Amino acid sequence: MKFITRVAFLIQLLFAAAALGAVQVDINTADARTLARELSDVGLVKAEAIVAYREAHGPFASFDDLANVKGIGPRVIEENKERIVFGKSRPAGGGTEIGSPGSPAGW
Fold first, then answer.
1. 25 bridge partner residues
2. Where do the domains of the chain lie, and which CATH numbers do they carry?
3. 60/81 Cα distance (integer angstroms)
């Protein structure tokens, strides 16, 4: 019985670790639904505000720019610093994309 309990615990631990691997999101290209889904404490209304601000003022260059969006304060930025990128987004675990400088297609 202890063996089954330990195996069940290890399986849960593996799933939890996979869930914690954050997906990075390009704040300058992601649509509102993607932002709402991938960012912590950002619902659809805040995500739409991010997109509207980006369309009105151009791409974000830093977290300071993002802080200008109504509803996006220091807490939201701090919670999402690991998820937000200001360039191409990358899936959790890294890896190279086809055609990226580090991939064989770029050789």
1. 84
2. 21-91 (1.10.150.280)
3. 14
- Whether the per-residue pLDDT at 25 is higher than 50: the answer is yes
Q: How many CB atoms lie within 10 A of CB 89?
A: 18
Q: What is the pLDDT of residues 32-67, one digit of tens each?
A: 999 999 999 999 999 999 999 999 999 999 999 999
Alpha carbon distance 44, 35 (integer Å): 8
What is the dihedral angle through the alpha carbons of 97, 102, 105, 107, rounded to the nearest 10 degrees? 170
- For residues 84 and 101, give the distance between their C-alpha atoms in angstroms, rounded to a whole number: 21
% residues pLDDT > 70 (the chain): 65
- The Cβ of residue 102 has, within 10 Å, a number of other Cβ atoms equal to 11
- What pLDDT, on a 0 to 100 scale, did the predictor assign at position 4? 80
Contact status, residue 53 vs residue 45, Cβ threshold 8 Å:
no
